[in-house]
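hey so u asked for the seq, here:
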Amino acid sequence: MKNSLKISFLAAVLFLFFGSLKAQTLEDYLQIAADNNPDVKAAYAEFEAAMQEAPQVKSLPDPTLTMTAFGSMVETRLGPQEARFSLMQMFPWMGTLETRGNVANLMAEAKFQAFLNKRNELFLEVSRQFYELYALEQQLSYQQDDLEILQNYKDLALSRVRAGSGALSDVLQTDLMRNESVTGLDILRLKKESLVVQFNALLNRPRTEIVILPQEIETGPENAIFDTPVSGNPRLAELKTMEESAKAQEKLAQKEGLPNVGLGIDYAIIGERMDMDVEDSGRDAIMPMLSVSLPIFRGKYKAAKKQAAFMAESYEQRRIGLENQLSAEMEAAVFQVREAQAMLKLYERQVESSEQVLNLLLSSYRNASSSFEEVLRVRQELLKYQLAVAEAEAAYLTALARIDYLSGKSFDYDNKN
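ran it, structure tokens below
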């Protein structure tokens, strides 16, 4: 009974373990990266910090309370002054606080766009490495198959040598190719190990965490039309928001040059007169106060307005230049997609043709009507085209991911709502 329970428990554990190793989609890894990557989290924290600026600048300045106690009492008609309290609250010109808040909110929005761009850059890099790992996985499979096929070729050559119809050189040539295939397999494995470490670093996971890859990735239609504008790129939105913030800063500089108004009250504590009887003796004095700042030194306000106007122009020109740059990069990315599509189609045809030629050569070799060297040459070409297919497919998918990045399209991200 105990043994059956142990077996059932182990079976359940193994089921859960292997069930958890199911292939994860790229979107799964993008979500993990968005949740865990420290650079993205830092960019989002900067946005949250910028959001706290508006409540600060929109608040009124703290009121001023002045307290005075007279050592030698100042005599008034109603009696000696014993203490005096003054409370004053300054009010900026109408609309100043709102404009300050608008400037702060626009700066926070720019930080949010910077966060989106940082996240999209991460998504592009995760996608690139994911597709590279996918290509490596395909190449490892091709290389392993090649090693097994070469062993079959060696066995075929040995059987012909034993039968007296083959040459020992055919066996040695096969060993040479098998050695190359073994080395190529080892290099691919080392490359994959290195890339897994880099991939996990992007996801902020342990370096040896297993990366589960799909067996196949859909590459999309061959004649897809790419008419995607770059206007949605967060870098453009960031500069546009910075431009609006500078224009709001220009308005703020104008309002800062207007008077501030202060309202207050002055309260004096009066003691009773002891030397004579005076009506209302000892009555405290209350006086309302009004103060107005006089911004007569206009140079700093004019300079602040000009500074903001120049910054707005700077952001506008930078945005125009960046839009031109992104448009050029989009054209290059579309070309890379088309190029990868063409090369992928070519390599797939070459693989198909090479397989047909190889089958014919093997059939001829078994009938002693073709050379074994020609068989090995075509086999080597077939492997080269198979490896090239994987690389072209990864290049195509990476170019598509770059188009998404340039256009501002990205995986839905709702963890930071």
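Residues 1-21, 412-417 have pLDDT under 50 and may be disordered. The radius of gyration is 39 Å.
lmk if thats what u needed
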